[in-house]
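Minutes, structural biology subgroup

Action item carried over from last meeting: produce the structure token record for TolC family outer membrane protein (Pseudocitrobacter cyperus). EB confirmed the sequence was re-checked against the source entry. Recorded below for completeness.
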Amino acid sequence: MTRLNRSVLPLIILATLVTTVSQAISAPAPAWANRPDIAQAAVVDLKESVLFALNRDPSVNEQAAQLGIGEGMVDEARSAWFPQVALSGSTGHSRTTDSSGSMNNSAQWGMSITQLVYDFGRTNSSIDKQSKQRDSYRFQLMSTFTSVAEETALSYIDILRYQALIRVSEEGWKALDNVRQLSEFRANAGLNSRSEVLQTETRMAGMQSTLEQYRAALESATARFGVLTGITAKTYRPLPESLALEQKPISEIEYSYIPSVMAAEASEQASRHNVEGAKSEHWPSVSVRGGRTRYESSNRNYWDDQIQVVVDAPIYQGGAVSARIAQAQEARKMAASRVEQAKFDVLQKASVAAADWRGAQGREAAGALQHRNAIRTREVYKDEYKLGKRSLNDLLSVEQDVYQAAYSQTLADFDGWSAAVTYAAATDNLLPLVGIQKNITSTLPELK
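Output recorded by EB:
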């Protein structure tokens, strides 16, 4: 009986665990664990895609919340100039002894009001510092808008890119199929061997493999786009021509309007006010304090009224104030270097994008010329092949030239669009070119 119990016990434990796990799996998931939805649309354009992404991306909400924190920090700094009102009360035994005797107190309660009068700029420096820090959060939010728009636009371009490459590959496959039919016709007529048909079918199989690779890449790009925007579509509209036609040259970049530079500059100004606040700690602060307190004692009950001018003057703190000033000054130097770094980053990103843009335009033009020449050569080779003056290898070679030229032209075209998006993002011009206008009063885009 003991052996039976020992053999059954593990089975009971296993069954209990299975039951517990199945119950946990079948239990409804909490709201925070729900997966993000992806909707299906019929048609979508780049502007709508960016708006969906801005509304969906968690980093936008995070930066917006950070801006709200900045507003609260400003209000907190300003509160120092308002009267500070406090209520106090206590109960329990306490004894006060002086020259007139002793007195047992049982309770006390009252109210006090303190008003800061002057602190040699300490509070104002704190307000200015937090105001600039809030501005930095605002500019970081603007930069986040542009980053999300750039990522969405590049994903949108990838979908159009692979759709175009699929069309090019399908056209290449159809062209090879025409060659196969021609070679099969000649083989049936005894003008060439069946090996030419097999050779053409081998090329078609290779083109089919390339086509499937692009289809898989399109599915991957569509999935990524769906995660970014929350939608996928059957039709994606062409890109706006303004991206290619309305770009400012590098020499006209206004760094004072670039959000990343503006955020760094606002942080530098905040650090400057931090230095001023640290220096003001050497000076006293003056405030007025008034209060009225009620005391309950064993001998008598009475009120204690106070109206005082309070001066808080640090004399010696072991060098703490000087150390804080030194730290603030070094922090200001770091903030100033970040401003220059932000400008360097903008210039580098814009310069590389502009170079890529020009290179893509040159490659596209060369590919278009190569494609036209290859098509003319293909027609001549076909006629000569029918007359037996060209071999099948010549015809297959020119078909490869036609496909390669179309492929290079398509690739260069969308490389140019990607470079245009990157350049517009670097110069903070992407949202207006997409069609999302910025609100002049708040400098933030209208998400409509």
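Discussion: Residues 440-444 have pLDDT under 50 and may be disordered.
Next step: EB to file the record with the rest of the batch.
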